[in-house]
Structures are given as C-alpha cells and as structure tokens.
Amino acid sequence: MTPRRIGGPGPLRLSTGTLPLADLAAGLGLLVIAALSLALLTGNLPLARGGKDGGGGNGPIQTPTPSNVVIVDPRANVPGRILYVKAGNIWLQHGATATARTSGGQDSMASFSADGEWIYFIRTVAETGLWRVNGVGRRFSLETPTLMRIRADGATPAEALLEGRISTGTYIWSTFLRQPVASPDGTTIVVVTDGPDPTKGDVVLKSFDPATGKLTALKVPENAPLGHQDPAWSPDGRSLLFVKNGRDGSRGAPVIMRYDVGTAQATAVTGPGYTSPAWSPDGRFIAATRTTTFGTDIVILDAARGTELLRVTNDERSFDPVWSPAGDTIAYPSLSGGVTDLWSVGVTTSGVPALKGSPLQLTISAGLDAASRPGWWIPASQLPTPAPTAVPTAGAPGAGGSTGGSSGPSAAP
After folding, report:
1. Exposed, middle or buried by CB within 10 Å (0-12, 13-18, 19+), for 82?
2. 96 part of a folded domain
3. From CA 151, how far away is CA 284, in angstroms rounded?
4. Neighbours of 155 (CB within 10 A)
5. CB 322 within 8 A of CB 347
6. CA nearest 320: which of 116, 97, 82?
7. Is the per-residue pLDDT at 118 higher than 80?
8. Torsion angle defined by CA atoms of residues 193, 185, 218 and 106, in that order, rounded to the nearest 10 degrees
9. How many domains would you assign to the chain?
10. Cα(184)–Cα(41) distance, rounded to whole angstroms?
11. Hey, which end of the chain has fewer CB within 10 Å, N or C?
12. How does pLDDT run across 18-32, given as a tens digit for each residue?
C-alpha cells in the first residue's frame, strides 16, 4: 500500500484500510518490543555505560542551562552553520552565536539539505489514541511523528511532508518515523520507518518522494525485527550508508552497511560494533561511533575497506560524529555529568587521517538532545580552494567484517 493524500496539498495521512484488529494488536505489541530492543541493543548512546572516571564515565552531575539558552565557547569560530536539537527545538550555531530556529519543544532528528536551504526533521505531537484491549476500545497517550521541513533562514513556516498518524475505522495509532536525510539532489528523502503499514514490516530504510508522496522500501538486509538506523548519503549520491542492527547474545552488534543506489545491492562495510556513519566530503573516509561494553567513541574508517584508521576520542562517552564540509574538522556530542554538549577537533586527511590540535567544547552545559545527531553546512564561498571533491563511492568493496585497529592518538574532552 502507498500513502495517499487526504484533503488536498496538506500533510499525508496514512491509512491501512480494513485489517483484522487482532492481527493489528499483535503487530503493535511486536513493534513496541522491537523498539525497546533497539534502544538496549544498538549501543548508540552512552547513557548507561561505564567510563574511566566511574559513575557512568560522567563525573559529577551537572545542571544544564535553561531550555531557551545555549552558551557557546567564545573561541568557537564555526564556519557555516551547525545544527543541533535542545529541549525539542532546532538550534543553528554560526561562529560563536547560537539561535533557536523552531519553538514548541516537539522537534528532533534534524538534518540539512545538501544546498543548506532546508532543514528536514521529525515533529512529534501528543494526542489521544484508541485501540482495542481485550475486546474493548481503550484510549491511550499517543505521540504521532510527522516528517517536516523548514527553510534554514526561517523565512517561511515549517511544512508537513509525511504524517505517521494511522486511522483504521474508529481506531487511531501511528507509525515510527525517524532520521530523515535528503539525497544530494533533493529528490528523495530516506527515513527509517515501519510505515505506511506497521503490521507488515519492521522499522527499516525507506525512500520518500516529496513530489508524489510515495514511500518505498529499499529492501536491504535486516536482522528482523531489529531493523535499521543512521542513514547517510555519500557526497556523490551514489551510495547510502546505514546501520543494520543485530545482537550477539544480550549485546548489540550493529554493522555499518553500504547501499549502492545503481545496483540496489547492500554490502557490509564493518564488522559488528559500529553505528552513526558520516562521510568525509571527499568520500574517502567515514567517521563513525565505535560501541563496546565500556561505552562509545569516535573513530575514522577507510570508506572502501571499513578498516579503523584513527581513534578520535578515547573517553567512552562520545558519539554521532558529523564531518565539516571543509573536511578539516569533526564535531560530535559528548556526555559528561548527565549533560550532552557538542565538541569539535581538527583532522588532517592528506594521507592517513590524524588529529590536528586539541578538542574544543563548542557548547557549555547545553544539555543537547542526545537522540538527535548534529548536522553541518558551509556555503561554497567559505569552503577551501580547491574544495573537497567527492570520489566515486558506488561499487567499492565492503570489508564484510574487517575492523582494523587504531593507528594514532585520540582526542578526548
């Protein structure tokens, strides 16, 4: 089934038609279990992990700044704009100034379009759902996600593209809808979802065409019912990195995969233990989160072979890296004292990647939303000359389990 537009050019409303309610209830239960399993098994966030200073690696408990305040280190001279989410609102940081782009506390998982004109994100609205329990309709608290976009300059209000709300007769419920990323040419948005019909699949990669409203599964391998996460387009638009979730006993075993758009085939880039991939602007390297039983750290991988070339952090509480479009810096959230802040560190990639300088804390006790990875866009006029040029990424061989090892020092906040 494909989404259909109801009531003209507004957001899409998804309908499953008439399905057996017993089957729907069973499917809903399985999806809830799958979502909980993902949170426990993927190891994407270091919220319950140890660290070198004990107490979860976080030191003394800190108090974040108020929800409408982001304090920026005055030494932070951020070129272009970095986006992140705090208290459900999207913020943009330029130089040493941060400004809220949205309000209302309902937004998450924001990402830039390749041209920096748009920000795609998920807006979640609380409403009352209705479902049958033991043959009786019961109301429950429902949080309905919607894929949205807003101009980065804030010139126009946010617009809805795809709604996760489902209405089946008198029953109301919703899909999962996560991590939107627009293709470099802007024609496709990849999301992680079980829509349009959660009873017929897991939370997996699907492409959404804003022009037609069509949602299409990419049909890449998965370990059901754990699904996928962390999609990332290559700079040339020919490949898509994503994480195939898995487990090894009680531990998560996520693997970074590469999807070739031309052949519609997916191959493994890494062995188990890697999430949140981010391409370097030239497509030669991948920044990623390395997950272990001790926590999470930032590493740089060879994009063609998946081997680990550099350990960027060694604090066991850093995650979700983003590469500067200039290719010379990596920014990443790090957790300390229960508060998430954004850090950055310089890198050189002329040969084997190496660190350049010391890490800099970009935000001070901000309390950023750890489930929303940062994004970075720099206008062409501010990029170095010559600007990083993307090398072809499609058809590069996957490592199928090679993890390599660190070849240099690491940075740690």
Report:
1. buried
2. yes
3. 30
4. 8
5. no
6. 82
7. yes
8. 0
9. 1
10. 31
11. N
12. 334 344 444 444 344
> Can you give the CATH number for the domain in which 260 is found?
2.120.10.30
Identity of residue 211: A
Distances (CA, A) of 91 to 60, 209, 329, 368: 27, 26, 20, 10
Alpha carbon distance 207, 217 (integer Å) = 6
Query: Is the distance from CB of 41 to CB of 247 less than 8 angstroms?
Result: yes
Task: Please tell me the predicted confidence (pLDDT) of residue 389.
Answer: 61
Tell me which residue range forms the domain holding 238: 21-382
| CA distance linking residue 115 with residue 127, whole number of Å | 35
Write the DSSP symbol of residue 73.
-
Residue 313: pLDDT above 50? yes
Torsion angle, alpha carbons of 368, 69, 79, 232, to 10: 30
Hey, what are 229's tokens? 């996460």
**262 domain-assigned:** yes
Distances (CA, A) of 48 to 57, 93, 404: 9, 29, 26
Structure tokens, 228: 């996928």
Judged by average pLDDT, the poorest of 59-63, 187-191, 204-208, 301-305 is 59-63
Cβ density class 345-381: b for 16+ within 10 Å, e for less: bbbebeeebbbeeebbbbbbbbbbbbbbbbbbbbeee
Secondary structure class of 157 (helix, strand, coil): coil
Residue 236 forms part of a structural domain: yes
pLDDT tens per residue, range 326-353: 999 999 999 999 999 999 999 999 889 9
Asked if the structure places residue 387 within a domain, the reply is no
